[in-house]
Amino acid sequence: MHTKLHITPEDDLADIDEIPDGSEPRSRCRYFIEPYGQYGINEVCEANYYVGNRVPYHEHLSGFETFLVDGGALEVLTLSRKAVARKGDIVHITPFTPHSIHSIEDNSIWRAFHQGLWLTKFMIEERDLRDRHWDTFFDPEFKRDTGERNGSKWFDYALPECEDVAPDKLPCLRPYDFALAEYSFEGITLRLKVGRWETLGAKEVWQLFLSGGYKLSWEKTHPYSLLYDVFSGSVRVTLENGETFIANARDLIHIPKFLGGEIEALEDTVLLDPGCQGYLTRFMDEVNHLKQKEPAKLRDREHIRAVMRKNDYNVLFGSL
Ligand SMILES: [Fe+2]
Question: Where are the domains of the chain?
Fold first, then answer.
């Protein structure tokens, strides 16, 4: 288990070839956080692809994949259609969604926030197998890309020619500006990228736009771990144990439960909250109701805190 609270792109736990087909250049996958909890959330790894790298056509029988494209461009192929995902886009793959990925630029970065997949554990096992059995590993008789393994079905054919469609025409692709729901307050805009109904109830995925100087805070009673990906900008994190650090773009902030703290945007910053276990959608909907029907209560901090507690969401926004 990664115990670091501030994880930079250099802080990987393991470095693995993701598509070890013997060709060069190889893709590279780095592993940052092991999954945990009832739903096995927040398994974070990152693949770096070169032009031509392909993830074969497959689907998962259980487990969810949420990807952030953090550089380059990749084609996402599913159900005979394909669209290009670019930096800042989110791709959310639910079980039984067949999919394939083709990198169309070098240095395409595919940062994954898995749920219930334990994928990297499998990849480490496979790496060890490959290292011990190099001669037979690429033998077709080995059938490593057919049949069921690791809770996934890998098809033994490539996806045929796909129709090009706009990014918003693939249900699994959530472009940077896309929102299932959007809420704005002074200094902060929140966009829902993946709803709880798309994660078997485990979590929500949010994109937070913070103006410079904006603060988020939570108390030591916070019952969930917090994970933020700094997509752009920078923040100062101050924790009640005295630890403080500055997180820049591409860093991860991983705070264990029951450790209070605060995040302050040092400039205009975009955070991704890929493992939001609290019911932020319910909280935002109720706040929206107050905004329209009982605006005076919006300025009552105690009332807002009560609404947060009721909806099991515990991160306080500076403007609420
Ligand atoms: Fe997949």
Answer: 6-174, 181-317
As its CATH architecture, domain 181-317 has: Sandwich (2.60)
Closest CA to 84 of 165, 171, 159, 193: 165
CATH superfamily of 6-174: Jelly Rolls (2.60.120.10)
Mean pLDDT over 39-59 rounds to: 91
**Dist. CA 153 → ligand 1 center (Å):** 10
CB 281 within 8 A of CB 275: no
The tokens for 131 are: 């290292």
CA of 119 to the centre of ligand 1 (A): 9
Q: How far is the CA of 267 from the centre of ligand 1 (A)?
A: 35
What are the tens digits of pLDDT across the range 106-134?
Answer: 999 999 999 998 876 677 777 777 677 66
Identical fold between 6-174 and 181-317: yes
Q: Exposed e or buried b for every residue in 236-253, given b needs 16+ CB within 10 A?
A: ebbbeeeeeeebeebbbb
Please tell me the distance from the alpha carbon of residue 217 to that of residue 219, in angstroms, as a whole number: 7
What gap in Å lies between CA 110 and CA 103, rounded to an integer?
10
Ligand 1 centroid, distance to 179 Cα (angstroms): 23
| 109 C-alpha to ligand 1 centroid (Å) | 15
Q: What is the pLDDT of residue 23?
A: 58
Entry pTM: 0.90
pLDDT of 148 over the 50 cut: no
**Distance (Å) from CA 180 to ligand 1 centroid:** 23
**Contact between residue 35 and residue 98 where contact means Cβ atoms under 8 Å apart:** no
